[in-house]
Amino acid sequence: QALGGKVERHPGGWAVGPTDYDFGGERVTLNAWHRDQVTVAPPAAQVVGTNAFCTHAALAYGDGIFTVQAHPEFATAFVEGLMRT
Which pLDDT tens digit goes with each residue over 12-64? Predict the structure, then answer.
């Protein structure tokens, strides 16, 4: 939102666990853990990753900023712990 887009809760609920994204025709699997998501991309953003659940899953702003909706920093064991609690 700070860059001019819009973020909302997804009416379809949560994305949880390993999730496939399309990065320009290449399938990339990342750990997802969210229900808030970008619903309107900021004007300066280019959509570089998407799937049916999250249209604006990854955005690039020139060659200096890259954002991703999923959590690639979450290891499988961490996600399993989130699901247990």
Answer: 888 888 899 999 999 999 888 888 999 999 999 999 999 999 999 999 999 89
Q: How many CA atoms lie within 13 A of 21 on its CB side?
A: 24
Q: Report d(CA 27, CA 30) in Å as an integer.
A: 10
In a 3-state reduction of DSSP, which class is residue 81? helix
The two tokens of residue 82 are 């989130």
pTM of the model: 0.83
Q: How far apart are CA 70 and CA 72, in angstroms?
A: 6
Three-class DSSP category at 51: coil
Q: Which residues pair with 82 in a beta bridge?
A: none
Question: Is residue 70 within 8 Å of 31, Cβ to Cβ?
Answer: yes
Residue 60 bridge partners (DSSP): 46, 66
Helix (H), strand (E) counts: the chain: 1, 7
